[in-house]
Write a structure and sequence with these properties.
The protein is mainly alpha-helical and 90 residues long. It contains three helices and two strands, in the order H-H-E-E-H. The longest helix has 18 residues.
Length: 90
């Protein structure tokens, strides 16, 4: 799951991440091939490697949402009301 979060959001302040950017990230994850398949690391030559599963994507979205809520708890962006925007999981 850290492999899904780190590449996209390293160096981003939580308050700078918009709902649209987060949704684009989720959409890209749906097209991302697994890093491991059938017990071994996937290479560029491997064929028929499935995409990351919906359960993994939803778990990543949940972690991201929780981190965002904690990071902005005291100083929420003014465009937010009371909670994080809902992202669409597959």
């Amino acid at each position: 799951m850290g492999n899904a979060l780190r590449p996209q959001w390293t160096g981003w302040p939580m308050s700078a991440i918009t709902r649209m950017e987060a949704q684009k990230w989720v959409n890209r994850l749906q097209l991302t091939r697994r890093a491991r398949h059938k017990g071994r690391a996937v290479t560029d030559d491997d064929e028929d490697v499935p995409a990351i599963g919906a359960e993994t994507i939803c778990a990543s979205v949940h972690v991201m949402s929780q981190l965002h809520d904690l990071a902005t708890k005291e100083t929420r962006p003014s465009s937010w009301r009371t909670r994080s925007p809902v992202l669409s999981c597959p």
